[in-house]
Amino acid sequence: xxxxxxxxxxxxxxxxxxxxxxxxxxxxxxxxxxxxxxxxxxxxxxxxxxxxxxxxxxxxxxxxxxxxxxxxxxxxxxxxxxxxxxxxxxxxxxxxxxxxxxxxxxxxxxxxxxxxxxxxxxxxxxxxxxxxxxxxxxxxxxxxxxxxxxxxxxxxxxxxxxxxxxxxxxxxxxxxxxxxxxxxxxxxxxxxxxxxxxxxxxxxxxxxxxxxxxxxxxxxxxxxxxxxxxxxxxxxxxxxxxxxxxxxxxxxxxxxxxxxxxxxxx
Length: 266
Known about the structure:
The protein is α/β, with parallel strands linked by helices. 66% of the residues lie in helices and 9% in strands. It contains seven helices and five strands. The protein has a five-stranded parallel sheet with strand order 2-1-3-4-5, with helices on both faces.
């Protein structure tokens, strides 16, 4: 990046020497012959560094620095002066001057080093500012993405809760609807089984008993569905209880005996 420097110097021979030296160092320079001209240029153009004499016609170096602080707050300001007044030095520091250079300038390389260091400081500030802008933009994007994801998750959770409620309602309604015809079927089979409707043909009793067992099992499954649906309701909890494993196994064997005999299995 090529830096632009404004040289504010009323002594033409001095400004020419500084101009030629800094141009040879790779900088783009412009010269203002008095303070007021410099202030006008600062309003119109952008400079990376302002190198100004302290004693100037029109407006002094302090006024130039004050004007540059308004239009070029980050650009370093270097003051050249042949005077070593302590009050001037303190005032320049309060205004934010980057450095002082004693006139007459006998070592242009020292001037070059001061300018180089000042511009390196400027580049560092600009890089930090750029990173800060990038970080703020990245944080803003991240916040928007987190907000979007949060809203999407919230919507998905609401949909899942709605579906879960629909499932539980379906299971509950289905269980109730299945129990009604099942109870009717079981009731009529029980009447036949206990011979309330007349004597049974030979061999029918065992088949009816198997049917009743199967109906009881179906009723248990439907009841389990109903209880499962109730678990989705607030405040419902599972309860552990003991069971008779022998009775459970006997009921399973009895339930499967017909199929086992039909397939001639043991």
